[in-house]
Amino acid sequence: MNDAYQSRGLINAIEYDIASFNESLSSINPAPLNKVILFPNPTTSKIALNSNKDYEIEIFDMTGNKVMETSGNTIDLSVLSSAIYIVKTLDKMTKETNSYKVVKN
């Protein structure tokens, strides 16, 4: 192959990648409407689920010990030490479960 062909091929590849990259940046990819998130994370005290449903909530330390249990859709972690925790939620109506890693400062 000659140098002109190789350069043109490289430029085409770069143009394609840039176009794909720009398209991914300009498109809006909202989170699914039914996705429940826990915020703010990290936190210093309270966290909440972005849902008005009622949940059974369990909080575990990183060794697997349950350190707290509550119900509702908000959690006050102010009584816990600064660490990383796993928050497990159970939607009381649908029985759907989720787990979240939470950083408590």
Overview of the structural elements:
The protein folds into 2 domains: 1-30; 38-104, Immunoglobulin-like (Sandwich). 23% of the residues lie in helices and 37% in strands. It contains 1 helix and 7 strands; from the N terminus they run αβββββββ. The chain has one helix spanning 3-26, and strands at 38-39, 46-49, 55-60, 66-72, 74-76, 83-91, 97-104. The radius of gyration is 23 Å and the shape is globular. Residues 10-22 have low confidence and may be disordered.
Q: How many angstroms does the end-to-end distance come to?
A: 60 Å
The biggest sheet, with number of strands, parallel, antiparallel or mixed sense and barrel status, is: 4 strands, antiparallel
Walk across the major sheet and give the strand order: 4-3-6-7
What would you say the CATH architecture of the largest domain is? Sandwich
Quickly name the level 1 CATH class of the largest domain.
Mainly Beta
Number of domains: 2
Oligomer: single chain
Number of helices in the DSSP assignment: 1
CATH fold title of the largest domain: Immunoglobulin-like
Indicate the percent of residues in helices. Answer: 10-25%
Structural category is alpha+beta
Radius of gyration, CA atoms, in whole angstroms: 23 Å
Low-confidence stretches: 10-22
What's the overall average pLDDT, rounded?
81
Q: Strand-and-helix sequence, N→C? A: HEEEEEEE
**Share of residues in strands:** 35-45%
Number of strands: 7
**General shape:** globular
